[in-house]
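Box 4.2: Ligand-aware structure prediction
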Amino acid sequence: MATTIAPPGSGVETKPLTLFSLDTSTDALRIVPLGGVEEFGMNMTCYEVGEERIVVDCGAMFPDADMLGVDLVIPDVSCLLAAPERLKAIVLTHAHDDHIGALPYLLPDLQVPVYGTPLTLAFLRSKLEEFDLLDRVEMIQLEYDAPVRIGRHFEIQAIHVTHSVPDAASLAIRTPAGIVVHTGDYKIDYAPVTGGLFDFSSLAKLGDEGVLALVADSTNAEIPGSTHTERWVRRHLEPIFATSNRAIFCTTFSTSVHRLQVLMDLAVEFDRMIFVAGRSFERTLGIASELGYLRPPRDRIRPLRDIELAPPAKRLILATGSQGEPLSVMSRLAVGEHRQLEVQEGDTIILSARVIPGHLRPISRMTNHFYKRGARVFDSLTSKVHASGHACSEEMKTMISMVRPRYLIPVHGELRQLMAHRDIALGLGFDPASIFIITDGDVLELNDRRAGVVNKVMTGHVLVDGKTIGETGEVVLRDRQHLSEDGILMAILNVDRQTGALINEPEIVTRGFVYVDESEELINELRHLVRESFESCPKEVREDPDVLNAEIRRALRKFIRRNYDRYPVILPVVQEL
Ligand SMILES: [Zn+2]
């Protein structure tokens, strides 16, 4: 993790500021990224004019596979909470978790209306329902080309762009200081599989009007050319379907509505029944078909319990878990641990998603398990089974040329992608002084006369523990303070590489959670629990440290919560000797 918890004296402002700048006149606009710059995920940007603020997006970040003990990462918003009355709204660009995933955790504190397009709000609604927050949040639908006024200083217009989830919007933010175009995630797909067309005309019109700043997605800035389309993916999936003579198991991101449509269309073309495995796919199917973004072939979709009704050669199973998440359907299938489904020799596995950096290891491990079972495997590294939802360099040139901003602020990406985005703009004749490479917490102030970073506010990562798939229960937010209060519990298992058996009793090490001297009994209980949960795992799970870790962690967490009402960070460590 790049920017963990800033230690005191690290140069980062540790007291929340109620003011982002001393200039409270209304002719200056301040842009403050609170997440998503110099990192992937957790996108959140604050815009401030005078004493009013709005926030665009409120995303979460998925922890790397090596961030043990953490389920989700969300932005630290202390700088907003220091002056809550200033925040007027949260405006969303699209439904991806790295843009809306932090809302269930932050909305109870932020308490402002949320604006978004219909599909985005539908996904948010279902998320808030899960957290029992639906009644407490005001949601206001954005219509394309129907600007809405927020507070005294902001007017927002949603502009339809194409992305891997439909109903994605770039935002034109009109302020007394000028217009900002905030692209959100986009690519230029001239013929999207579902949903509206890319709205070139509104963006070009804004360019004619004069745009002060373009805050733009940099994800694929290093990749030359243009992003492939969903129709291109379909062309490359076709031969895989044509040559499969047993069951096909396919995974993708749960919000990839276009991809799900492509897969369901292929099921019709190749006469297969569709079985949906995993709650998040079921949810997407429900939401997107209700709003008309998906046209599922109803007569072909069957519940999982009817799987035996279709012979293997007539099955398409859509399964969640494209990143090898330890407790997902795909991971369970890989180790033969799914209750209703089994991957057999000759089956086809399609991982129709990109490999998120940091997840290569669990995905490789999962893939190896599938090979061991005799399946053939297609993934985005070896086959053309995935297209990105983000613009490549040529599309970025189109965006910049249409909008013609006075200033460019690359966001969404690590420094290398931000710099590549800068190079693209320089190639178009941009003045280097008009491009701002800023980072989370920088207060970039723009007005007629000048532009520059005037301040730095506190930002950071808050770690979320306890929202694992298939698990309900309390959610623990860990900021700097909680990390030191809840303590840490490590369970160390020494496993014989040859036999797969435990070499000795599991070791339990705690810091700040209990006083070891006084709790010998508890430690013994925990040891016993760890051994029990290790031994209850089948051999294949024991051989997969990621899945094994998740299982042990879950058992410990449940036990400690139930019996002691404590929430330590739990880190199982499996050593193969
Ligand atoms: Zn996105």
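In the box above, the bound molecule is zinc ion. The mean pLDDT is 89.
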